[in-house]
């Protein structure tokens, strides 16, 4: 009978503390951190990503291999312990059979790989009853404690191996034994101690001694090492393959960023027309590309606007200097002429003529300076009051009366303005309906709007024959476009077509803003198509010599455009059907009020009301209460 008792103890680890100088350590760490940071910043993003992938795969492979090694080692150790405890009595009871099996072959089978030592307390004799035999006469036995008092019975423990060589084999030595045999012999042992219980002749049991049963851990260590090598090889293969695949994936992923980089380089070289290649906007690169393209479009637009503003400012300064130089030169010339001729006979008559020319030139210069000041105030957002209630119909009617007074022979027709399909089927167009002009009142600056209409009528008076007919019309139409968007539209025919499309939508859906549309159409020589958008530029005149003859400064249409845009409106010039020029002014009046349909009698009786019907009924009740 063999009894088993358990118990064990392990010493705790000791720590070593190393002190350093704080000041020197901080200095070295700071310099090292800066050096490492500079090196890391110098590495490309793709290399950083690939390095991170390789590091993560390496750490994962190492952790997996270590975990597998620990699990397998613990599992095999547990199996060996179970095998020792369960088969110890069987091994002890079959010593003779195991000896015979051990002596039959040089390579011991699994049952003969046990080590068995018996310590008989009755006679103080210790004998190795079973020792596994290795190749080349090499024996490996566990190093056992001399004193059995400190041993915990039934609790397996690990101990080192002691190597010896068989005396019967004269050639057996560490130099002749192969490396595998020596490695197996040096492997530690797992040993369990048990009480040797025997029986007396009368059948009583007593403890005769101690039995040590051991198994070599060479197979377990070899299995664990082999599995570790395979895990390491697989881990290295995974790291290498992951590095290659990661490099390919990272390179393909960063290709759009490289295209963005090349595009940015071209933009930095001055080509603002470049755009970043588009990508799906649900991705980070696609969202970045869309944002960059929007930013580049705005930058390009701002740059072009700034360039156009700079060019206009240069041209404005040049034209203003030229326009001011002409009357100043006339004033200076006539003053010098008066000085030269005042001593001659008839000087008084010549002086009156010189003073008349000086007065005319100063008057022209005064008008020019006042127009320049008006434009400067409008550019700064000053000199305009948008809170007045302006009777637009009266303003247009007064302007037509002034034109009739200036040109009595001119035929002037007034009426309303409507939208109708064009004859060629290309879309809608504004149509003139002769008759009374509709009564329109809007919020704005009355004097400035009167100035706009006066400038248009003045141009008709200056640049068209006195007997050519003119049509003036007013209309109020809804358009699905905001006044802010309308005021930002350029003064071109394309913008007018967009406005007509917005009016079509506004009329069909009754949404948007009501706009007052004022149109003056003449049948004079007109303006070439390429020059129509330029008539709103400062100091632009289709015929400069005729403009000076008529007293024009070239600022009338520029002032009109600035006033209209200050009212959040739109102005443009188009060709009149049959020849001539048509000027269209669009000004916001009020938001479109949705139409409220009356509630049907049958629906009201049944009590079926929609939300809009309910609101209509409540409004009608409030009106009746008032």
TrEMBL record:
It is an enzyme of class 2 (transferase). It catalyses: ATP + protein L-histidine = ADP + protein N-phospho-L-histidine. The keyword Transmembrane applies. GO terms for molecular function: phosphorelay sensor kinase activity. Residues 1-23, 598-626 are annotated as: Disordered. Its main location: membrane. The chain crosses the membrane at residues 45-68, 230-254. It comes from the Bacteria. Residues 612-626 have a biased composition (Basic and acidic residues). It holds the Pfam family HAMP. It is found in: Cell membrane. Keywords: Kinase, Membrane, Phosphoprotein, Transferase, Transmembrane, Transmembrane helix, Two-component regulatory system. The keyword Transmembrane applies. Residues 251-304 form the HAMP domain. One of its GO terms (cellular component) is plasma membrane. Its EC number is 2.7.13.3. Residues 319-591 form the Histidine kinase domain. This is histidine kinase. It comes from Bifidobacterium samirii.
